[in-house]
Every structure is written in C-alpha cells, then in structure tokens.
Amino acid sequence: MPRASCGAFAYGLRLPAARAAAGRHAHLLPLLAVVALLLVPPGRGPDAGGGTLADAASGLLVLWCLVRVARARVRPLTRLAAVVVGLPVVGLCAAAVTAHDPAAALPGLVRHLQVFVLVPAAVVLTLRDRRDLVAVAWALIGLALVQGGVGVVQYATGTGASYRGEDVRAVGTFGPTDVMGMATVVAYGIVAAVGLALGAPARSRARFAALGCAALLAVPLVLSFSRGAWIATLLACAAQLVATGPRRALRAALAAGALAVVLVGGLGVGSAMVQERVASITRVAAAPDRSVTDRYAMWAAAAGMWRDRPLTGVGLKGFPAHRDSHASLALSSGSDTAGAGMGFRRQPLLSPHNMYLLVLGEQGLLGLLALGGGWLALLLCGCRRLPAALRTGREADCALVALGLLGWQLVDFLYADIGGPSTVLTAVVLGVSAWWALAPRDAEAGTAAGGRSRSASGEGA
Known about the structure:
69% of the residues lie in helices and 4% in strands.
C-alpha cells in the first residue's frame, strides 16, 4: 500500500477515536467553561460590578445540572453527599434572617450559596469517573500556566501591581485589587500537577509533563509575593508527598531545595524582594508589617462581633458595617493599590482575611459548625478512601489531587477568605474534593447498586 494511502488510512482510524473522546467529555464543557473564562480580565472601572463571566458560567452550570436531574428523574446525590454539601445552608439562612439588615444580607446569601453549595454540588453531578477529574485537573494547570505566564511578564517588564514602590508584583489578569487571584490559581495548578505526577506510572509522559508544569509554576508563585499562598502550597505538596512514602518526600524536598537555589540564587528571580518577604514570615509576631498589623486588628474585630452575637453572628456582609465599632486604633483606613494598568486607589478593608473568623463573626457558631463541619467531613471521607487508592493505584492521582486541593484551601483560609473573581474557582475545587470524598465507587456500590452509583456521580443524570 502506498505511503500516502497508509497515512490516510491511519488518519481515518484516528478521526473516529478523536470524535469519540470529544463526545465522551462533552458533558464537561460547562464546567471547563467556568475555568477557561477566568482568563478574561474582570472589569476594572470604579463602577465595575462584582460578577464576572466565570460567575455567569457557573450559574449556567448549575442550571444545566438541574435540567439533567429533572429529566433523569433519579436521586442525584446520596444521603451522605446531600447532607454534607447542603449543611452550610443552615448557617447561611440563619445568618441572613437574623441580620440587622436582611435586605443587605441577601447578596451575601446568594454568593455563599453559589460558592459553598450550588457550584460544588453541580461539580459532583458533572464528574463521572477518574478521567473526568484528571481532565479538570489539567484545565486548572492550563489556567495556571497562562495566568502565571502573564504574571512573569509583568514582573520582567515592570507592569505588575505595586510592591515596595515598584510595579513588579505578579497578579495575572486579576489586577491589583485582587492580588491573591493569580497566586490562588497558580497554587491550584501546582498542587494539581504534583498530585497527577505522584499518581502517574513511573517514567510515564504524564508524570514528566506534570512535573514540568509544577516546576514552571513555581516561578510565578514566588513572584506573587503571597506569603499565605507559599505556606499553603508548601504544606499541601508536602502532605501529598508524605502520603506516597517518606523516601519520595525526602527526595522531593531535596529537589525543591535545589530548584529554589537555582531560581533565587542562580537566576536571581526576585532575590532581594523574595528574601525580604520570606524573612517577614518569621516576624509576624515580633515585628509585623502594616498588612499583618491590619490583619490582626481585623481578626480581633471579627472575634468581637462573635462575642456580641455568638450564635448567628452579625449577619452576612455585616463585617464592614460593624468593623469600626470592634476594631482597635491600630487598624488603618485601607490598603494602597496601584499598577497593572490601574492608577493609585485606596482599597477599603472589608473582610478579616481569615475565612474561619469571617464565618464566626458574620454567621456565628452555628455557621462555623455547619460550614466547617462540612469541610471536615470532606477531609475525613477523602482520607478514608486514600489508602485503598494508593494501594491499587487505580485512582491514586484523583485522591492526591482532590485531597491536595482541599488541604491547600483549608490552610489558605487561615490567611484569606472568599472575594474576587477567583472565588468561583474555589467552588470548583470544593466540588472536586466532594466528588472524590462522597461519590460512590463501583467497587463500593456493587453491581446491584450500579444505577444509583451512576446517578449519584452524575452519569445517569
């Protein structure tokens, strides 16, 4: 057979396979659209609203899942999944109803339901199996590579957000008003890449590709100058490594140390500023800078709000209204933002930058138990499945990615809270973790419960 004919024959064989693969992943398109639309820069004008195209896509994802569930006429979630995913509704509704101004609390109720209930539930219904989760993980890595690439260019050309009087802080397309946006996206990408690499077969292309992406993403994470993202990423990746064996963890620690020496010492990637920023982590108690001092003052203010209304808090979106009456004189009037295409602006301090204290102050003990209890349940259920996944190797990458992302988020919530365009990605991450922790597996459900297993994970919806 002529060579041209052989090539055409081989192409004819590959084309149906490619179409079949595209058709198999078609149900992921609404979810992947939420991730991809975070590449679109948000509005930056003074009158720009809080919603983004990614938020609108997340609403369409939820609506699409509701339509699928209604058409399938099956129970979409198991009882355990429904309880864990829906648990935050109790605290949210109580905080909204008991707020001093329920009308002002309504936007906060909608936002919290989107991030902590509706979108995570939609992700659980959308994902079907391991290949779906891996596809979402690579989508997170792709988003991180693009945003991180923009951030590196900003640092190299002096067009980033203002930091220490220089426009060098890498913020991606999120702008100086959301300096944590790119750091969060890049950190998600690193954790997902490390999880995929550790769960892939030895010397496979997937492992080398994932490791290469993780190494590349380390540069924009450093240039984000986000201490909270550094700490959360280091702890999450360390937990992933320890879960796969102490020897591997030790080798990875040595490799990471060598990479840090090359990046900072050899290539000079932000060496002076990075060293100063790293050193400031150890001075947060003895000699805190202005940002840390403000954060301490806002933490104390959130705790004061909780003491005033311990059960239900001051209400959703109530922190700004009650901040000044509970904050000390050490709190400044706001933070300065500039650079990355924007002029100087005074950014008001509208949250305590600690998700747990924000929930405690605005939703009280009831809200913290409901929301934190759901996260703890996800962590425990996910860890319970981890040993079997590592032993069989069938879903080791899924386990490491899902638990790594959840661990990163729970640590990062000690230094940050929801807010900004990247918040919708937090909802996706929580949904990925919930699918791994709560969706029944075929081996667990058995053949007789196969239909219920498919419906619970979204396949039969």
